[in-house]
């Protein structure tokens, strides 16, 4: 049985702040992807699931005054935050729509690029989102995804608290039709959607002491806390104890913290 709101991590303040921070943390690798694709002046780009910031600023710079960027966001609060970000930064070539990624209402084949970053890993029925992205792009245009195999998060020495918390998070995701390892499937999904010249760039990181992303597992669990508790997947006392134990382990500078496996994959809509 799915939650009324399908996004795995919810929309409370902590998740909003994490997403805004994530936009800065992932900016360099997203910039690399857009440069590799060849995004340039005059392009029309749609970012699906842009959240409160996403890649809107990066894309705005690349398409220039003659281009257009459209951000699509399901959460009304996040769409509002993105609209404020656009206004505050005078991104006059960017528009943010409060709309469903599976049915945006935008016209067929009007974009040079449709892109999404770490969206499919948090929602059910990701194939519907990919199909909508393909619909929006013109022949010869590009669909690009940046996704994760979030089940690959590890630390060394391993800690039973992390093992248990990831087990709970993965179980909750599976109950709601969410594939936290979807990054591995993305290249095949693009090929099966009819895209040609599909390319793949894998990324993995070791987060040093004091790096904000060392605590991502704890942030994910905290953001999904009430949903997990409501499903009786774990008791609150045990959850708190596990999170405290894992925090101590991750704060130890001798602990190696390794990220998810990230997959950037992109391909072209065949010219007719």
What strand order characterises the main sheet? Answer: 3-2-1-4-5-9-7
Tally of helical segments? 10
Strand residue percentage? 15-25%
Q: Helix amount, in percent?
A: 40-55%
Radius of gyration over C-alpha positions, nearest whole angstrom: 19 Å
Which regions are unreliable across 5 or more consecutive residues at pLDDT < 50?
Answer: none
Q: What is the averaged pLDDT score?
A: 93
Structural shape = globular
Structure report:
By secondary structure, the protein is of the alpha/beta class. Strand 1, helix 3 (56-63) and strand 2 form a beta-alpha-beta unit. The protein contains ten helices and nine strands. It is globular. 40% of the residues lie in helices and 21% in strands. The strands form two sheets. It has a seven-stranded mixed sheet. The protein has a two-stranded antiparallel sheet with strand order 6-8.
Structure summarized in a few sentences:
This protein has 272 residues and is an alpha/beta fold. The protein is built from 10 helices and 9 strands. The chain has helices at 13-25, 27-37, 56-63, 76-88, 126-136, 160-175, 186-192, 216-223, 225-230, 236-251, and strands at 44-48, 68-73, 94-98, 111-117, 137-149, 154-156, 196-203, 256-258, 261-268.
């Amino acid at each position: 049985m799915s939650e009324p709101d399908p996004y795995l991590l919810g929309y409370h303040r902590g998740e909003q702040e994490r997403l805004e921070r994530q936009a800065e943390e992932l900016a360099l690798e997203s910039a690399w992807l857009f440069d590799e694709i060849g995004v340039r002046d005059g392009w029309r780009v749609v970012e699906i699931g842009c959240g409160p910031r996403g890649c809107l600023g990066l894309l705005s710079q690349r398409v220039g005054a003659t281009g257009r960027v459209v951000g699509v966001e399901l959460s009304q609060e996040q769409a509002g935050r993105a609209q404020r970000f656009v206004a505050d930064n005078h991104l006059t070539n960017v528009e943010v729509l409060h709309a469903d990624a599976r049915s945006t209402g935008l016209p067929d084949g009007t974009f040079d690029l449709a892109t999404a970053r770490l969206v499919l890993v948090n929602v059910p029925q990701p194939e519907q989102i990919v199909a909508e992205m393909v619909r929006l792009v013109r022949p010869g245009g590009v669909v690009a995804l940046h996704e994760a195999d979030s089940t690959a998060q590890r630390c060394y020495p391993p800690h039973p608290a992390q093992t248990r918390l990831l087990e709970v998070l993965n179980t909750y995701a599976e109950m709601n039709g969410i594939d936290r390892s979807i990054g591995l499937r993305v290249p095949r999904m693009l090929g099966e959607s009819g895209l040609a010249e599909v390319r793949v760039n894998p990324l993995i990181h070791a987060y040093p002491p004091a790096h904000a992303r060392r605590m991502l597992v704890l942030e994910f669990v905290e953001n999904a806390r009430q949903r997990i508790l409501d499903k009786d997947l774990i008791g609150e006392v045990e959850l708190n104890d596990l999170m405290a134990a894992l925090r101590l382990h991750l704060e130890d500078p001798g602990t190696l913290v390794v990220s998810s496996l990230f997959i950037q994959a992109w391909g072209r809509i065949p010219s007719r």
